Amino acid sequence: MRFMVMHKMTAELELGLPPSRQVLAGVGQLINAAARDGSFVSGEGLKPSRERIHIRYENGKRTVTSGPFPDARELVGGFSLMRVRSKDDAIAWCDKLGAAIGDGELFLGPVVEPWDLGAPEPDDPPLRFLAVHRMDAAAEAGTPPSPAVVAKVGALVQEMTDAGVLEASAGLMGTSKGARIHFGGGKRRVVDGPFTESKELVAGYAILDLPSKAAAIEWATRFGEVVQVNEVEVREVSG
Q: What order do you get walking across the sheet with 40-45 strand by strand?
């Protein structure tokens, strides 16, 4: 089973300051251990919401709003990690996705690269954006998309892959199969789904191949304690 473990933004993360050496070391230990046992698939961090945009597609029209988003509500339905030439290029690919699936909304933002954390920057650094798609009512209810939508999205995924744009993508199961871990006062509390929007945007994620939801919650709890956030969400990847 694959799970997406998402940690949420905090006031400290919104400042965009680099994590402490202690946090970097702790995250590195967790991910390296998961990579050694074969459970770690992929993962990225996101820059603060002031560097993101919100895109809404409705009745054939697009509305773009720039961050920051201090009061945003987010319920993740899936994601697409893109390697592009520019921000406008990333938006153009989002437009194609909007044309394929119809009305919907997403947050688009640049990911944190190793050189943002102090590693040497390459001569021609890649530009990568993560599009976090909002869960809609049909997907939450477990209603599969129509064959026409499946065909359009499949063709777009192939186009993006052939163009070298799409690095990773996944859709998520409904929130009834998920869980949230809340941290506060030196304690943690696990809440099973279903649930509604989170009041914090996603700050980063990891995709893990684990035997059970319980195992994903255990890993997410350790991760949340290391990165010192208020909430971590666990969702099962569809397909």
A: 40-45, 202-209, 2-8, 231-236, 179-184, 187-192
CA dihedral (8, 233, 104, 209) in degrees, to 10, reads 120
- Asked if residue 198 lies in contact with residue 181, where contact means CB atoms within 8 angstroms, the answer is no
Beta bridge partners of 105: 56
**Total-model pTM:** 0.94
The answer for 102, left when phi > 0, alpha when psi is -120 to 50, beta otherwise, is: left
Q: How many domains does the chain have?
A: 1
Give 223-227's long-range contacts (Cβ < 8 A, gap of 24+): 223/5, 223/7, 223/27, 223/30, 224/7, 224/181, 224/183, 224/188, 225/183, 225/188, 226/23, 226/26, 226/27, 226/30, 227/7, 227/19, 227/23, 227/26, 227/27
Task: Return the DSSP state at 113.
Answer: P
What is the domain extent for residue 164? 2-236
Other Cβ atoms closer than 10 A to 122: 10
Secondary structure (3-state) at 238: coil
Q: In which band, very low, low, confident or very high, does the pLDDT at 81 lie, cut at 50, 70 and 90?
A: very high
174: helix, strand or coil:
coil
Residue 53 token pair: 């945009």
> For residue 54, what are the β-bridge partners?
65, 107
Q: State the Cα–Cα distance between residues 82 and 206, nearest whole angstrom.
A: 16
Q: Which band of pLDDT confidence, cut at 50, 70 and 90, is reported for residue 186?
A: confident
